Amino acid sequence: MTNRKKLPNVLTLKQALIAAEKGGYALGSFSPRYTPMIAPILRAGQALQSPLIVQISHRELVRYGITPQEFAEEFYNCVESEAISVPVVLHLDHSKKLNTIAQAIEAGFTSVMIDASEQPLEDNIRISKEVVEYAHARGVSVEAELGMIGTTDFVETEKDEELYTDPQEAERFVRETGVDALAVSCGTAHGIYMVREPKIDYERLMAIRALTPVHLVLHGGSGVPAEMMSKAIMLPGGGVSKVNIATDLELALLEALGREERMTNSECRGLSAEQLEVGRAAVQAMVADKISHFLGSAGKMQ
Q1: Which among 58, 80, 249, 275 has the fewest CB atoms less than 10 Å away?
Q2: pLDDT tens per residue across all 302 residues of the chain
Q3: CB 257, CB 278: distance < 8 Å
Q4: Does 245 appear as a known binding residue?
Q5: What GO molecular function terms would the record report (predicted)?
Q6: Is 123 a catalytic residue?
Q7: 141 a known binding residue?
């Protein structure tokens, strides 16, 4: 891990999700996609006294031209310079590359996700268990995925196939891998819903939780109606504790800037001070809206 001093409010994913499930809310796992947009995410959490997660995926690192070290440095610099005191997590989202996971842990990420969901169950278990052993030895939490989550946004994942998570397989997967959180496929998709309507299979979520106490993660939070998400969070016995939100933030940024095409990280960093201020305000407003009306995490600092 990086030599940076440990900040008391930067938690592992496991620590943060225990508090979220106990408090009856979900943690927003927000992907800024551009390093200048990390600050407004943290500002929104601080203003609303909401814990949150800042994340980036392997494909986003590649697409936007960022290294794990650069992302982590910006995150920690912002936590300190913005005097952020709410609990926060630095999370590596979808990664199939073990070397990327190792780089993220070395850079100071407190949580990583291994996504071997395209592999047969036996291979997914083997690969995920290997990552758990590596990360846990370094004090880092691990999220994995079982089932395949569809997509409308190929920045996140390569395929639009969907395969719902089997509760019996989930019980075995969690027991044999020791993962701290499990991303499940139950109807949502990465990106914005253009054709099909979002849906959540609540019975499937409850069946998974009936067999395993693992914290559940819902990917593809952008575009899901608030009332639908609230029900998933408040399911009896423990519902969804982490919700990934990425596309909504980027769309808010691009709309505020009057752009349609995505940028690279270096292009974003090259924006004028005025443009950055406008873009950051839009991202902060979007995160604040999700915290207040989608996740139920406002005022849940403790």
Answers
A1: 80
A2: 444 568 999 999 999 999 999 999 999 999 999 999 999 999 999 999 999 999 999 999 999 999 999 999 999 999 999 999 999 999 999 999 999 999 999 999 999 999 999 999 999 999 999 999 999 999 999 999 998 655 444 444 454 445 789 999 999 999 999 999 999 988 766 444 444 567 788 999 999 999 999 999 988 766 778 888 889 999 988 899 999 999 999 999 999 999 999 999 999 999 999 999 999 999 999 999 999 999 999 999 86
A3: yes
A4: yes
A5: aldehyde-lyase activity; zinc ion binding
A6: no
A7: no
Q: Cβ–Cβ contacts within 10 Å for residue 123, how many? A: 11
CATH class of the 13-295 domain in this structure: alpha beta
CA distance 103 to 73: 13
- DSSP label of 196: S
Residues 101, 109: Cα–Cα separation, whole Å? 9
246 is in an annotated binding site: yes
H or E, element range at 38? helix 38-47
**CA-CA-CA-CA torsion for 1, 250, 29, 187, nearest 10 degrees?**
-130
Active-site entry in 93, 166, 180, 248 = 93
